[in-house]
Write a structure and sequence with these properties.
With 176 residues, the protein is an alpha/beta fold. It folds into two domains: 1-30, no CATH class; 34-175, Rossmann fold. Helices cover 20% and strands 35% of the residues. It has helices spanning 8-17, 55-65, 79-82, 127-136; strands at 2-5, 24-27, 40-46, 66-77, 90-91, 97-99, 109-115, 118-124, 139-145, 168-175. The strands form four sheets. A four-stranded mixed beta sheet has the order 3-4-10-9. The chain has a two-stranded parallel sheet with strand order 1-2.
Length: 176
């Protein structure tokens, strides 16, 4: 097993949580990792690809490194979540979110947003783009999910608003 991340802080957390001799970590941008041919049975990515400019390139590299019938499973911020860019509710008053703005959905590309008080760059793409890149790179879609918070979390502050629009998308695919 190999964990790849550009952030040394994230790799340090992963090392702290893993005590297995067959796990190694590589500090690299996922766009620049070597992707050795036919080396993995499964590739998993959690909430990273919306930071990558070319999802098509990632699909090609993952296909290259997966064994035949290998699985590719990933989550991204949902295109409805990333479309408008600011990733903020429209409010009526201080604490009353009226709606989540969806604008420029079909205009793919760079979006500047704030996350934990920091300015960050994300890349918006449509559902069609995600699915099209997978199919165009020799994958078969095996699953699709727009997760909602578990029932026990709905009592937490602001969590009920998470039922008003999807914030994440999970897709699983298989290399043909």
């Amino acid at each position: 097993m190999i964990g790849v991340d550009i952030s040394e802080k994230m790799l340090a957390v992963a090392r702290e949580k893993t005590n297995l001799p067959n796990v190694s970590y590589v500090r690299a941008a996922i766009e620049e990792y070597g992707y050795p041919e036919n080396s993995f049975d499964v590739v998993i990515s959690s909430l990273a690809f919306h930071y990558v400019e070319s999802f098509d390139d990632i699909c090609s590299k993952v296909n290259h490194c997966l064994a035949k019938n290998g699985d590719f499973i990933f989550s991204v911020e949902h295109p409805i979540f990333t479309a408008q860019g600011s990733q903020e509710w429209v409010y009526s008053g201080a604490d009353n979110p009226l709606y989540w703005p969806v604008d420029n959905y079909f205009i793919e590309g760079r979006r500047d947003a704030r996350f934990l008080g920091e300015g960050i760059t994300k890349y918006h793409r449509t559902l069609t783009a995600y699915i099209g890149c997978l199919l165009g790179n020799g994958f078969q879609i095996t699953g699709f999910c727009e997760p909602t918070p578990p029932e026990e979390m709905l009592s937490l502050t602001d969590m009920k608003d998470e039922l008003r629009r999807p914030s994440m998308l999970i897709i699983s695919a298989k290399r043909k």
